[in-house]
Write a structure and sequence with these properties.
Layout (H helix, E strand, L loop, with lengths): L2 E6 L7 H16 L3 E6 L5 H12 L11 H8 L1 H16 L4 E4 L6 E3 L8 E4 L2 H8 L3 E5 L2 E3 L5 E3 L5 H11 L4 E6 L20 E3 H9 L7 H10 L3 E5 L7 E4 L2 H7 L7 E5 L2 E9 L5 H11 L4 E9 L2 E9 L6 H15 L2 E5 L2 E7 L7 H14 L5 E4 L3 E7 L3 H11 L12
Parallel strand pairs: 1-2, 1-9, 2-6, 3-6, 9-11, 10-12
Antiparallel strand pairs: 4-5, 7-8, 11-12, 13-18, 14-16, 14-17, 15-16, 18-20, 19-20
The structure holds adenosine-5'-diphosphate, aspartic acid and magnesium ion.
Length: 422
């Protein structure tokens, strides 16, 4: 029998009662001699609580490079350490031999980019030794250690990535991500009660859903699973459904279900629209602005670039967090004015809604359908951008739920309107 990696998210380990229930479930697998590696998140709300402590310490200042990110990572990695030890104790009480490890203890090596480190290598010797001694290994998700011995964290939702990286390193049979919903849905089931559970989804589509705002899986976790061909499943501990299986090839998918073009709709309320207006007198203005953002560790996504008469208009989206106080906005505005002879404007009351599906760009009716449905509901479109696999719109954030629901219905994604032939 091969090894299975199971990851339990924040809600699943959100109380002592839930932790005890997981321990009971794990005991059943253990008795059947199923080899398991378990990855845990922090209890729900714990990572936010730790982040708020740091924020209070810095008096809510938002200029990003003011934070001591090395210390921040040490602080926020502790959430997972609490859960791993509690689960291991619960298992011991049930007579299951288990041991918990932090990322550092287990030699999960990452680069040194604090708060969003990438896993580079995992030493599997401890795991293999424990498995051979019939010890159930519990691992703290979301964290690792760099080559200098510093603790690092993997970005929000990073326990998913710990799970798939471990599954890849030990060549597991399957990586199972247990969460608080029954799998991957056509849209966030908490926002739209007509969303439908997807039984199978391709890696490409899952990557797109994740990177465009669906937080059910961290994007990097999907990347790990793809690279090493590990079957990845999202499911819930609160029911017995098989959940959603993420599969590599669309051809496999076509054999099992009658697939429609649109696989899902995501929304991202965390980004602010930032527009830079410059004349083409300044060579490389766009590049210079991006370089400035990089100096402040600000990640950005270019949404649109237009030349109107002699002016360039470049629209980016960047995290709203940077604009929570006006400080960062003022710094960027001053830079654009003094160095690029241009203007900066920002709209932080927006949401990016994305419709995802393979080959979406070649179906012209999709854009038309979106526009006509938004028009009917009186929602004003601020911007549209497309790629081969998604179409994103920017609208006012107050209309998030309305727009998602309207488009979900328009594209026949509502529960009972999807036909599956298995
Ligand atoms: P965990 O703590 O288990 O890691 P997360 O909160 O990170 O859980 O992710 C699960 C949540 O993702 C769900 O509660 C749901 O609200 C949200 N979500 C957003 N989009 C989707 C989607 N398309 N399918 C399923 N869940 C989604
Ligand atoms: N506890 C971390 C977070 O809240 C990691 C995770 O839950 O996956 O982002
Ligand atoms: Mg998560």
């Amino acid at each position: 029998m091969g090894i299975i990696v199971q990851k339990f998210g924040g809600t699943s380990v959100g109380s002592i009662k839930n932790i005890k229930n997981i321990a009971k479930q794990l005991k059943l697998f253990y008795k059947k001699k199923q080899k398991l590696i378990v990855v845990v998140s922090a209890m729900s709300g714990e990572t936010n609580r730790l982040l708020i402590l740091a924020k209070k310490l810095y008096n809510e200042q938002q200029v990003n490079n003011i934070y001591n990110n090395r210390e921040l990572d040490i602080l926020i990695s502790t959430g997972e350490q609490i859960t791993m030890s509690l689960l291991s104790m619960a298992l011991n009480m049930l007579g299951v031999k288990s041991k918990s490890y932090t990322g550092a203890q287990l030699s999960i090596f990452t680069d040194s980019v604090y708060t969003k480190a990438r896993i580079q290598h995992i030493d599997t010797s401890i795991i293999n030794k424990d498995i051979n001694n019939n010890i159930l290994v519990i691992v703290a998700g979301f964290q690792g250690i760099d080559k200098y011995g510093n603790i690092t964290t993997l970005g929000r939702g990073g326990s998913d990535t710990t799970a798939t990286a471990l599954a890849s390193a030990i060549k597991a049979d399957e990586c199972q991500i247990y969460t608080d919903v029954s799998g991957v849905y056509t849209t966030d089931p908490r926002l739209c009660n007509k969303s439908s559970l997807i039984s199978y989804i391709t890696v490409e589509e899952m990557l797109e859903l994740s990177s465009l705002g669906s937080k059910v899986l961290q994007t990097r976790s999907v990347e790990f699973a793809v690279k090493t061909n590990i079957p990845l499943r999202v499911l819930s501990i609160f029911d017995n459904n098989p959940g959603t299986l993420i599969i590599k090839k669309r051809s496999i998918l076509e054999n099992i279900i009658e697939k429609q073009v649109i696989s899902g709709i995501t929304y991202n309320c965390k980004e602010a629209k930032t527009t830079v207006f410059v004349t083409d007198v300044v060579p490389g203005a766009c590049y210079k602005f991006l370089k400035k953002l990089k100096e402040y560790n600000i990640e950005s996504n270019i949404q649109n670039k237009k030349k109107i008469q002699k002016k360039f208009v470049i629209t980016f989206t960047i995290s709203k967090d940077y604009y929570k106080t006006t400080k960062m906005y003022n710094i960027l505005q001053e830079y654009v004015c003094n160095n690029l002879g241009g203007k900066l404007s920002c709209d932080n009351k927006i949401v990016i809604i994305s419709i995802v599906g393979v080959g979406i760009n070649s179906h012209k009716y999709i854009a038309k359908k979106i526009l006509s449905n938004l028009e009917k509901t009186g929602i004003i479109l601020i911007l549209v951008s497309t790629s081969e696999i998604k179409l994103s719109i920017i609208i006012n954030e107050n209309y998030t739920a309305l727009a998602v629901k309207v488009l979900h219905t328009a594209f026949n994604l509502d529960i009972n309107s999807i036909k599956e032939e298995i």
